């Protein structure tokens, strides 16, 4: 990838941290390839890689209030042809159909609930090289887009969730032993 590696993995901040409730800052396209933004992207990838159950992460989740999220490459059948970094993402189209989807969050550790999400979405964003693109998604990726873009606007899944509950110790142990 284009970004540089940093030495320490940044911890994932939890729901009591004010950075998660702030509107994240947009990034000027000319700044996307700066060392600062590239290091944040690298930190995000590294922090996400430490989590057995993580599928994506937003910059505020590592304490950086910027409009960036990344998706774990295993989400895609062929990650070479999919974007993994989304900068200044905007949802530009949604399906009329929605469904309650089961969710959790790395920043709301060990809580789960059901959130109403559109079944299909289209986003416009920039990649880590500063190229603008549009991507449509359904299924899990559409779900991820909506969850992560909420993070960039200071919204946590617990704000929208029905049937919100703490995971059982057995469920937590299963997650911790997945790798």
Our measurement of the CA-to-CA distance between the termini, rounded to an integer number of angstroms, reads 24 Å
Please outline the major beta sheet. Answer: 5 strands, antiparallel
Shape: globular
The helicity comes to 10-25%
CATH class (first level) name: Alpha Beta
Taking all Cα atoms into account, the compactness measure Rg is 16 Å
Tally of discrete structural domains: 1
Strand content: 25-35%
Which consecutive residue ranges, at least 5 long each, have pLDDT under 50? 1-6
Order of helices and strands: HEEEEEEEHEH
CATH homologous superfamily grouping: Peptide deformylase
Examine the secondary-structure arrangement and name the CATH architecture: Alpha-Beta Complex
- The total of beta strands comes to 8
Count of alpha and pi helical runs: 3
Give the strand order, joined by hyphens, for the main sheet: 1-2-3-6-7
CATH topology: Peptide Deformylase
The helix/strand class is alpha+beta
Main traits of this protein?
single chain; 179 residues; alpha+beta; Peptide Deformylase; five-stranded antiparallel β-sheet; three-stranded antiparallel β-sheet; 3 helices; 8 strands; 21% helix; disordered N terminus
Outline:
With 179 residues, the protein is α+β, with helices and mostly antiparallel strands. It has helices at 35-49, 139-152, 169-176, and strands spanning 56-58, 68-71, 85-94, 98-103, 111-118, 120-126, 132-138, 162-166.
């Amino acid at each position: 990838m284009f970004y540089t590696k940093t030495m320490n993995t940044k911890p994932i901040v939890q729901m009591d941290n004010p950075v998660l409730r702030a509107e994240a800052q947009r990034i000027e396209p000319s700044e996307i390839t700066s060392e600062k933004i590239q290091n944040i992207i690298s930190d995000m990838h590294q922090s996400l890689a430490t989590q057995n159950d993580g599928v994506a992460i937003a910059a505020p989740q590592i304490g950086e209030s910027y409009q960036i999220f990344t998706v774990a490459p295993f989400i895609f059948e062929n990650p070479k042809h999919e974007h993994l970094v989304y900068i200044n993402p905007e949802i530009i189209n949604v399906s009329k159909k929605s469904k309650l989807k089961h969710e959790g969050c790395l920043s709301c550790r060990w809580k789960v609930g059901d959130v109403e999400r559109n079944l299909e979405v289209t986003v416009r964003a920039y990649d880590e090289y500063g190229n603008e693109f549009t991507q449509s998604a359904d299924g899990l990726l559409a779900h991820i887009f909506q969850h992560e873009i909420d993070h960039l606007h200071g919204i946590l899944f617990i704000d929208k969730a029905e049937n919100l509950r703490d995971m059982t110790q057995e469920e937590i142990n299963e997650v911790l032993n997945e790798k």
